[in-house]
Structures are given as structure tokens and as C-alpha cells.
Amino acid sequence: MPDMTRVTIATIALVAVVARLGAASPAPAAYPAAPDVVVFCEPTLQHAVRDVGALWRSETGIHVRVFTSPTWALLQQVAHHARDDVLIGEGDGEAHIAAVQNLIEGGSQQTLWRNRLVVAARRGDRQSGGVNPPAVASGQLPTVAGKQPIAIVDAWAATAGADSEKALQSLGLWQAVSSKSIGVVGTADAAFLLAQGKVQLAVVYATDVAANPVFRITDRLPAASYPPIVYWVAQTAHALSPNAAKFITFLHGAEAQERLRADGLEVLP
């Protein structure tokens, strides 16, 4: 029994010490926030946002952490309080949801960039004998349609697919293209098949082409044939980084805009 008494007294003392330590420790919210800026964006923007983030870091020394998902999924993550300082999304509907659900800081939302749908092919592959010419000449989609395999996003899977179908229908090429198409769930998958040589052509975003040095644009789908692909930016309502607003301002600078154009985006006024 004396031993049990000593154990009980020691246990009580330990609990008291832990309680005092807990009371003395600051609550998680009291910790200073990391200066790094966490950015959520669409997958096709990953390369561009990382590039402009590298520019920002070279000037400020502050890292930009980039995470990607379709905008609807990003909104769900923000709603569940995932760490995010800056949200770059696509679509007026999603922007409205973000505002109504108070996921973004009021008045911080700005329209940034526009993307385009294009048809891409691989550049000539370098071999021991030199450089092979491209298999598909520029502007030859009407000639190639239905004769060579093309990767295209399924209309049911993503907006890019529905928009691609509309654009090809406006050109009178949808039936021919779809007869040789390989359906995928996103432009990243279409780009992968093209990079691996599994298809001769892929309908992707201009940013997907800019992100891969072995790709080139053969055709640009008519801009009037599908809804504008426009991206917006906003600071999240629960942003932790003290540099979130500064990074958004940086996106409007001349150097950042030049980099973004090189990455396939049209900078909107």
C-alpha cells in the first residue's frame, strides 16, 4: 500500500505539472504565422503560378507554396479550413459561391487572366540522325481530323471537355475528331498521352503547352466558340500569412505579368 500511495501522489503531481504547462503555453492561434504564402489554384495554372512565385521569392525571400485542384474542390478544402492564403479560381459561379459562403476576404476578389483552348503536337524528337520534322503541320487540324489519334477531355468530366466539343462543333470537325479521340478526365492527362507519344494531337490549354518544352501549338480553337476561360484571385477569409495581400499585388506588376504571358496566359486589364 505505501508503494501505491507514492505512485498515486506522483501521478497527481505529474498531472498538475502538465496542467501548469498547458496553461502557460500559448493557444495555437497565438503562434506567429509563417511568412510563406500558400496558394490554391487550378491544375493548369501550376506551372505559371510556380514561375511567378519564384520571381516573388527572388525579390522578397518569401516562399510560395502551390497546391492544385479544380476550383470546386478547392472551395471545399477552404470551407473545411485547409491552410490557404490566396485562392485562384475559375468561373463566375465558383466566385459567387466563394463570396456567399464567406470563404474569401470581402473586396479582395480580382479578375486576373484568360486562358485559351489549343491543339498541341510534339516537336520533332531528337535522335542520332538529327531532328525529325513534326508529324502535324500548323493549321492542319481539318486535314488530320479523323486520321490520327487525338487526346481530348470528355465533356462529362470537366469544363475543358465540354468547351472543346463546342469549339470543334463550330468548326464542323467534332464528328471526325471524336472518331479517333481518346477520352481523358483532364488536360493534364491529355498532355501526358501526348508527351508519351501515345497520341499525335491533344486539345489542351495554352498554359499546358507553355509548361512543356516539347509541345507546340498547331491550331487555336476559335475563342468565340466557347465561354471565356477566366481566372480570379482573392485572399481567403482565414489567411494566415501576413504577405497574402502583398503577393496578390505583386501579380499585377510588370515583371510578373511578363512571366505569366510567357506561360500562356493573357493578362486582363
What does this structure look like?
This protein is an alpha/beta fold. It has two domains: 33-114 and 228-267, 3-Layer(aba) Sandwich (D-Maltodextrin-Binding Protein, domain 2), CATH 3.40.190; 117-220, 3-Layer(aba) Sandwich (D-Maltodextrin-Binding Protein, domain 2), CATH 3.40.190.10. 40% of the residues lie in helices and 22% in strands. The chain has eleven helices and 13 strands. The strands form three sheets. It has a six-stranded mixed β-sheet with strand order 2-1-3-12-4-13, sandwiched between helices. Strands 9-8-10-5-11 form a five-stranded mixed β-sheet, with helices on both faces. A two-stranded antiparallel sheet has the order 6-7. β6 and β7 (130-131) form a beta hairpin. α2 runs antiparallel to α11 (254-262). The protein is elongated. The model is unreliable at 1-31 and 125-134 (pLDDT under 50).
Number of strands: 13
Please state the CA-atom Rg, rounded to the nearest Å.
25 Å
Multimeric status of the protein: single chain
> What helical percentage do the residues reach?
40-55%
CATH homologous superfamily annotation of the largest domain? Periplasmic binding protein-like II
Short description:
With 269 residues, the chain is an alpha/beta fold. The protein has helices at 2-24, 46-60, 71-79, 92-100, 141-144, 159-170, 174-179, 187-195, 206-210, 244-250, 254-262, and strands at 37-41, 64-68, 86-90, 110-115, 117-122, 126-127, 130-131, 150-153, 181-184, 201-205, 215-220, 229-235, 266-267. α2 (46-60) packs antiparallel against α11.
